[in-house]
Amino acid sequence: MPFNKGFAQEANKGSGQEAEKKAPPVRLLVGGALELGGDRVAEVYFTNGNTQSVNAGQGISIAVGGEFQVPKVEKLRLRGTVGYKYVTTAADNAHIRLTRVPILLTANWMFTDKLRVGAGLAMHRGIQFNTDGLGEDVSFQSASGPTFEIAYRGVGLMYTAMSYTDQYRKTYSANAIGITFSATIPRH
């Protein structure tokens, strides 16, 4: 009898009823951010006398990528995303904008199921300031710098440090602080 009892316990473990369900190690990651900061790239003057600055670190972004849960270290998550970051002005007669393609690679530690702290590398590619014909367009070299994030559930606070260099070799701080949003599919 003891042999049959042991055999029945093994069968239950494999049936999935009592076994703990685990999320797959690789998940789809979607996210975004609202960021402020950096040096002024341009200042737009309006006919009513108002002005608006466009700053290098400022913008709203959306991103997609993946999250990998390291099998031997379950609290460690590696994340990578590619996105689009954009800021525009209130001009009615022109579409003045600063655009870039951010690539983020981070290592994240899950202190709890809901609290995540991460650090890694942020890279911005295709950095363009477009005046829509009202002035000179400006291109910037690709840039990279460290990024840090602390998040609770899917909402976080991120800081990125980097500099942009334009086509005339002028350098602008693109340091940014912002609120991030992220979710994995399937969820943890």
Q: If classified by CATH, what would the architecture be?
A: Beta Barrel
Strands of the widest sheet, in order across it, are 1-4-5-6-7-9-10-13
The number of distinct structural domains comes to: 1
Low-confidence stretches: 6-13, 15-19
Strand fraction band?
Answer: over 45%
Under CATH at level 1, the class stands as Mainly Beta
Percent range for helical residues? Answer: under 10%
Please provide a written account of the structure.
With 188 residues, this protein is mostly beta strands. It has a single domain, classed as Beta Barrel (Porin), CATH 2.40.160. Helix content is 7%, strand content 59%. The chain contains one helix and 13 strands; from the N terminus they run αβββββββββββββ. The strands form three sheets. The chain has an eight-stranded antiparallel barrel with strand order 1-4-5-6-7-9-10-13. A two-stranded antiparallel ribbon has the order 2-3. It is elongated. The two termini are 40 Å apart. The relative contact order is 0.20. About 7% of the residues have low confidence. It comes from Hymenobacter sedentarius. This is Outer membrane protein beta-barrel domain-containing protein.
